[in-house]
Amino acid sequence: MIGLFTNNHEIVVHSGFIYLPLLFDPTVEREVRILADREKTGESLRKRQEKTIIEVGRKYFVKAVGLESLLRNYDQVDADLYEELKRAYLPDRPNSSSPGGGWIDKKLKTIIFKIMPYFVRSKRVLERGERRRGQILDLIAERIDVPPTYRADIDALLDTEPMKDVIGELERRLSPVEPPGDGVFSTSELREWLGKALKARILEEEKDRLNRELQEREEFVEANRNLARVMFYIAERGWLEMDGCGFTRIGNNRDYLVYKRTGEYVLTDYYGRSYLFPDCRVAVSTCSPFKPVVIEKYKHPFLYAHRSMQEICMRGFIQPQEFSAENIINVLEEAINALLYGYDGRRRNGYHSLDPTRVHVKTIEFVDHRVQKDSPKRPR
Q1: Long-range CB contact pairs, 204-213, < 8 A, 24+
Q2: 123-144: buried (b, 16+ CB within 10 Å) or exposed (e) per residue?
Q3: Whole-angstrom Cα distance, residue 309 to residue 292?
Q4: What is the arithmetic mean of pLDDT over 269-278?
Q5: Buried b (16+ CB within 10 A) or exposed e, 212-239
Q6: Confidence grade of residue 193 (pLDDT, cut at 50, 70, 90)
Q7: Cis-peptide into 376, omega within 30 deg
Q8: Residues paired with residue 10 on neighbouring β-strands, in sequence order
Q9: Is pLDDT of 140 > 90?
C-alpha cells in the first residue's frame, strides 16, 4: 500500500527517527569510527539522540528521516499515492457536485471582496471589514437576479446537516495511532504503521477542513440568506462582471481569469497620426504563471500576433510568485498602463510599428485602426 520502504530488510526506529541499514565497506568503516570517537567525547543527551549512525546487533544504521516529518510531508514525498489514499479513505464530500465545488473558495472570496472593489468605483463599497463585504454583496445583488430554478438547489447547498453527518462519520472512524517505540522493525511492519498513521492524518485534516467550512457557512447564512444565495449563484456559474472588472472560471477548476477592461483608447504613430484601439479585457490567472494576457483576438504593438489569449510584452515586468489581491491588482494595472501608455511612436518600440516601415518584414498592420487618413507628415 505504501510506496516507501519497498525492500525487505530491517529498519531501526530511534528517538523518533528512521534509521536505514548502512552498506559497509572499508571507507565507510573509517568514517564510522571517526564519527563514533567524536560522539563518545563529552556528548550530551541531545547529541546522543541526534546520532547520525547507530549500531544495533553488530549492524550499522544511518539516520534517514523523522517519523513526524514523513507523516507531515507525505503528500510531497508521493503526491499521487497520497491522493489515492485520500480517495480511498474519505467519504463523499457533501454539496460538492457543482463546478464551483459547492462552496465559495478562498480565491473566489479574494476576487469578489478584495480585487473587484478596487476597480469598482462606487461610494457603496468604501467601507472596510465586514460592513464592506455586506455593501459589496448588496451591490452585486442589485445587478444579479438569481433564477427561481437555482434557488432550490442553492438552498440545498446552504443546508449544513449533510456536512455535520460527514463530520460525525469522520470522528467515528478516527482512532489515535501511537508512534512506534525504539527498536528494530521489518519493512512490512513499518509500512503497516505508516498506512494507519496516514489514514489518521487524512481523516483528521478533512474533519478540520469541514469544521472550518461549516463555521464559515453557518456564519454566512446567518448574516443574510438572500445574499448567501447570490454568492452561491456566482460560484455556480463561475463568472461575474461589474463596471468593466470581472472574472471567469478556467474549465472546471477552482482557478479563474481575473480581468479589467481597457475601454477604447488612442495611440499615436511616428507621424503624429492617431489610431483608435477597441476595448479589450486584460487578464491574469489566479494560478501560476501570473502573466498578463489579452483575452480577445487582438492586435497591438506589444502583442506578437493577432490572436486571442496573448501574453503582453512588458519591459522590466517582474512576475509575482504567489496569488494575492495585491499581486493581481498590480499586474492588471501594469499591463493596462503598458497597452495604453507604453508605446512610443518616435521609438517604434514593441513587436510592431503603428506606421508601416520600409523594412520588408511581414508584420501586423494597424491601418484599419487609423483615425487620420491624410498623407503622413514627418515631425520636425
Answers
A1: 204/174, 206/86, 206/90, 206/170, 207/167, 207/170, 207/171, 207/174, 210/163, 210/166, 210/167, 210/170, 211/167, 213/103, 213/163
A2: eebeeeeeebbebbbebbbeee
A3: 9
A4: 94
A5: ebbeebeebbeeeeebbbbbbbbbbbbe
A6: confident
A7: no
A8: 186
A9: no
Look-up of cell digits 461575474: 240
**pLDDT on residue 292:** 96
- Give residue for cell 556528548: 43
Calculate the CA 188 to chain-centre distance: 37
Helix (H) or strand (E) holding 247: strand 245-249
CA atoms of 30 and 144, how far apart (whole Å): 76
The residue type of 209 is R
User: Would you say 162 and 93 are in contact if contact means Cβ atoms under 8 Å apart?
Assistant: no
Please give the DSSP secondary-structure letter assigned to residue 370. Answer: B
Residue 42 has pLDDT above 60, yes or no: no
Helices 148-158 + 225-237 axis angle, to 10: 100
CB hemisphere CA count around 254 (13 angstroms): 13
> Which pTM was predicted?
0.59
DSSP single-letter state for residue 368 = G
What confidence tens digit (pLDDT) does each residue in 208-243 have?
Answer: 888 888 887 777 666 666 677 777 788 888 899 998
User: What whole-number percentage of the chain has pLDDT above 90?
Assistant: 26
Task: Annotate 288-327 with DSSP letters as a single string.
Answer: SS---EE-SSB--TTSSSSBSSEEPP-TT----SS--HHH
Which amino acid, one-letter code, is at 214? L
Q: Is 311 left (phi over 0), alpha (psi -120 to 50) or beta?
A: beta
* pLDDT above 90 (res 182): no
Tell me the C-alpha distance between 163 and 356, whole Å: 64
Instruction: Specify the DSSP element, H or E, that contains 328.
Output: helix 325-341
As a whole number of angstroms, the distance between CA 294 and CA 314 comes to 13
**What is the dihedral sign for C-alpha 240, 227, 138, 329?**
negative
**Left (φ > 0), alpha (ψ -120 to 50) or beta: where does 5 sit?**
left
